[in-house]
Automatic annotation (TrEMBL):
UniProt-recorded name of the protein: Nucleotide-binding protein PUW80_04355
Pfam families for the chain: YajQ
Keywords per UniProt: Nucleotide-binding
Organism: Microbacterium thalli
Family recorded in the similarity comment: Belongs to the YajQ family.
Record NCBIfam families: PRK05412.1
Amino acid sequence: MADSSFDIVSKIDRQEADNALNQARKEVEQRYDFKGTDASIDWSGESILIKANSEERAKAVLDVFQTKLIKRGISLKSLDSGEPTASGREYRIVSTLKEGISSEDAKKISKMIRDEGPKSIKSQIQGDELRVQSKSRDDLQEVQRMLKAADLDVDLQFVNYR
């Protein structure tokens, strides 16, 4: 019998992220507490640029955006936000959406699978994803449960389960 396998990836649905950003922009434009604060949120290349005339307003816009991401099913682990920085008369927050598993995170996950997972499991790093193989599908499901329960700073999805 052939080995069963699945891939561990960290991906974001770009359309859902764009929808969340557009919803946040509309809410910022319409909310009374943002009137006159020059608050805005927009794409700036691959990153997200939040602007406001005070540090608190910039953080409030970020909070609105985070709420919209959660409602759209995107984990906040995939959002990497900086601190508000003063730029002239406005404050800016630059945020990026992280995709792919970095090599050190992949090594950490692979080590966790080797140390805590069932012994029949084999894992290998393939670029920015991880392939996990075993003869037993129950062992693969056990690894998935273990990784979901682990407190990792990466949003993981399990795909290509065969």
